[in-house]
Design goal:
single chain, 513 residues, 2 domains, 7-stranded mixed sheet, glycine dehydrogenase (decarboxylating) activity
């Protein structure tokens, strides 16, 4: 156990008396913009505009916009204070399993902001963007080499978008063989990411669930039992969502191919094997690669992301446009599917140049050996956490080595009065973002931890010591430490389910008194 002291003396667990301002030291309370400013005033003086004609065809605003007016210092302080309430990878270890929250090197950020790349426009002449096309071609070469597959589509914007891309190529290939009316089933393992069945259903495939073996992995024999002339593909993650390597993956691929289907590999967990194992060698036909999870580009959060999809020779002809090809001394972006077997265009433009630059800078910075070492370190970190907690916390599939993430269940909490959710909330009081909880569904009360290769041993040791302290507290009967948590966060425990289903999106001023 780590001693709960610091260079400044003992760390007090003061559950804090109320303060006049609502602030706790430098952790400042922050009201809404409407509670700070006034909708009838602005922070700057602007002369009334001269009358102008409208081109909005009667759609112009009829009433005031209703935004609160703030001065520049007030505005800056508001958003800076809000930003301090967000947990981020720049603030501390982010143990979300299945998310790979790794450090984003600042050198990559600087590269992405270079003039000539940051100000590119997707419609400018290709002759003026040869450097950008060279970046795309080089990134494509790295990706296809790492997976040992011949083609890649760079245009998908995220993992789920990549899944859609790969499965559209599979659907097109099946239709080209005249089997579109009969091959309409996709096999999905029990432990799959939720986007897998969602993607299959979106494309009008039926989903057939394949159960896992007692050890959390898939058996080729079980897959064969679910195959038939109606099966279009299997969607399998390797390593899987339980943090385990699918050892029979080659046999599974062979079985699916023998039945006339295709093998889609969910590449969300590529960070565990990049530079060490090549999915093309497994028999994969299509796989998306999350650049944020494996190659350190920032998580999109609904913003700019990238989920390139690699293809086998069987599916390469059906990949979407646009794609880069070399013509003599120049590169060109092929933007039209006419004259090809491509399923067409997946998205308006070629993808996110900023993400391509960050990912390629990461690859070039580490090199092939460095990427492999990163994968090995990610696996080592997860197993270090597993070995350090296995005497207190239970694993649903036995005490066995994992890949880049370790899965615990809630069996060790039985009889304590503490749930997985309670345990996760108590982590917030300790300054940590909780791990992924209740996923994968094959583990009751799942707690999925992924430290990535970014963390130092000292960082991991403090995290482990914190979880050990919490676990020992739960087993000792200190349920109130958990059921009331978090106590020290800017906001206490909220009902996330109710908030998601019945969000309050409009501010209403409370009546005085």
């Amino acid at each position: 156990m780590l001693d709960k002291t610091s260079a400044l003396g003992p760390i007090e667990d003061d559950r804090a008396p109320a303060t006049f301002t609502g602030n706790r030291g430098l952790d400042q309370e922050e009201p809404l913009l409407f509670e700070i400013g006034r909708v009838d005033a602005t922070g700057v003086d602007i002369d009334d505009a001269a009358p102008v004609g409208t081109r909005l065809g009667g759609l112009e605003r009829k009433a005031p916009i209703g935004l609160a007016g703030l001065t520049e210092p007030e505005t800056m302080r508001h958003y800076v204070r809000l930003s301090r309430k967000n947990y981020s990878i720049d603030a501390g270890l982010y143990p979300l399993g299945s998310c790979t929250m790794k450090h984003n090197p600042r050198a990559n950020e600087k590269i992405a902001r270079l003039a000539g790349f940051a100000d590119l426009h997707p419609l400018q002449p290709q002759s003026t963007a040869q450097g950008a096309l060279e970046i795309m071609q080089t990134l494509a070469d790295w990706l296809t080499t790492l997976v040992n597959m011949p083609a890649v589509a760079l245009s998908p914007k995220a993992g789920a978008h990549g899944e859609l891309c790969g499965m559209m190529a599979i659907k097109t290939a099946i239709a080209a063989k005249g089997e579109g009316a009969t091959r309409n089933v996709v096999l999905i393992p029990q432990s799959a990411h939720g986007t897998n069945p969602a993607t299959a259903a979106l494309l009008d495939f039926s989903v057939r669930v394949v159960p896992a073996a007692p050890d959390g992995t898939l058996r080729a024999e079980t897959v064969r039992e679910h195959l038939g002339p109606d099966v279009a593909a299997i969607m399998l993650t390797n390593p899987n969502t339980c943090g385990l390597f699918e050892r029979e993956i080659i046999e599974i691929a062979e079985a699916v191919h023998e039945a006339g289907g295709y093998f889609y590999c969910d590449g969300a967990n590529f960070n565990a094997i990049a530079g060490v194992a090549r999915p093309g060698d497994f028999g994969v036909d299509a796989m998306h690669i999350n650049l944020h999870k494996t190659f350190s580009t920032p998580h999109g959060g609904g913003g700019p992301g990238a989920g390139p999809v690699v293809f086998s020779e069987r599916l390469a002809p059906y990949a979407p446009v646009p794609f880069v090809r070399r013509v003599g001394e120049k590169l060109e972006l092929v933007e039209h599917a006419e004259g090809t077997e491509s399923f067409g265009r997946l998205t308006a433009f070629h993808g996110q140049m900023g993400m391509f630059l960050r990912a390629l800078a990461y690859m070039l910075g580490f090199g092939a050996e460095g990427l492999a070492q990163g994968s090995k370190d990610a696996v080592l970190s997860a197993n270090y956490i597993r070995a350090s907690l296995r005497d207190l916390m239970t694993q649903p599939f036995g005490d066995r080595p994992c890949m880049h993430e370790v899965l615990f269940d809630d069996a060790w909490l039985h009889g304590t009065g503490v749930s997985t959710l309670d345990f996760a909330k108590a982590m917030i009081d300790e300054g940590y973002h909780p791990m992924t909880i209740y996923f994968p569904l094959v583990a009751h009360g799942a707690m999925l931890i992924e430290p990535t290769e970014s963390e130092s041993k000292a960082s991991l040791d403090l995290f482990i010591a914190t979880l050990r302290d919490l676990a020992q507290s739960a087993k000792a009967g200190d349920a109130p430490r958990f059921t009331g948590a978090p106590r020290l966060a800017p906001r206490r425990r909220v009902d996330e389910t109710r908030a998601a289903r019945k969000p309050v999106l409009r501010w209403e001023e409370k009546a005085a008194g």
